[in-house]
From TrEMBL:
Source organism per UniProt: Rhizobium laguerreae
Stated name of the protein: Lipoprotein
Lineage: Bacteria, Pseudomonadati, Pseudomonadota, Alphaproteobacteria, Hyphomicrobiales
């Protein structure tokens, strides 16, 4: 799983200064905003809230920057860390990183792109949406179709114990009295969250995960589907450092 989205763009290596200028010079544009994911879970001892502020960047390169079939379009990426909700001592739920800045109509803030078929109009529409999102400061409910993946560990010291959590049935993972109340997304001026995941999992957790993943691959071979825990990667929890 990866949160990095690229729209098949390759920018010539001699153009980074122009590309990063953010001023539209020669058709290169950049946009940036921070998004905050807020998760509320009902537990037997009351509601628990976890949140994480993540950084969104959008880039545009002009049509003349194409190299073969690549370039001349939009791309975006997301950096930050997963949301961590402490449900009880030693019991956590993690909402893995998910990009809410794509063009799909089921996302939170961005309306569907029109199907005009006109490339110039489409570019203008995306620019206008990005300008709006960069200025917007608002919180909205995340629809079920756009939920991030939810994960827990039965043993926080063992990466191999990662388990998928069903957002409509937390009882199956945590027992009676646990329910997902809401997932919300805000566009915010707050600074990007850092350090929460590694404080909970420990500084050597992802090194141990990589070691166990390699051992499982060596044991099972390349053609056997790996266990769920080894279908996950560090950048599902932390990226863009």
């Amino acid at each position: 799983m990866s949160i990095r989205r690229r729209a098949a763009i390759v920018v010539p290596i001699f153009l980074p200064a122009l590309f990063l200028s953010g001023c539209g010079l020669l058709g290169f544009n950049t946009w940036h905003w921070n998004q905050k994911v807020i998760i509320v879970v009902e537990t037997p001892t009351g509601e628990r809230v976890g949140q994480s502020v993540q950084s969104v960047n959008w880039y545009e390169s002009p049509a003349w920057a194409r190299l073969g079939d690549s370039g001349g379009g939009f791309s975006n990426d997301l950096s930050g860390e997963a949301v961590v909700v402490e449900l009880a001592p030693g019991k956590y739920i993690f909402a893995l990183l998910k990009s809410f800045d794509g063009l799909a109509s089921d996302q939170v803030f961005r309306p569907p792109i029109s199907n005009s078929g006109n490339a110039a109009s489409l570019r203008q529409e995306i620019r206008a949406q990005n300008d709006h999102l960069e200025r917007l400061r608002e919180t909205r409910e995340v629809p079920r179709s756009a939920y991030p993946a939810l994960v827990t560990f039965s043993d926080l010291s063992d990466p191999a114990t990662a388990q998928k959590v069903d957002p409509v049935n937390l009882t199956a993972s945590f027992g009676s009295g646990y329910r997902l109340v809401s997932i919300k997304l805000a566009i915010t001026d707050e600074a990007k969250t850092e350090g929460t995941v590694q404080r909970v999992l420990g500084p050597r957790f992802f090194e141990e995960w990589a070691r166990k993943r390699q051992a499982a691959f060596t044991s099972n071979g390349p053609f056997k589907k790996p266990p769920f825990a080894f279908q996950l990667f560090r950048n599902d929890f932390i990226t863009g450092e």
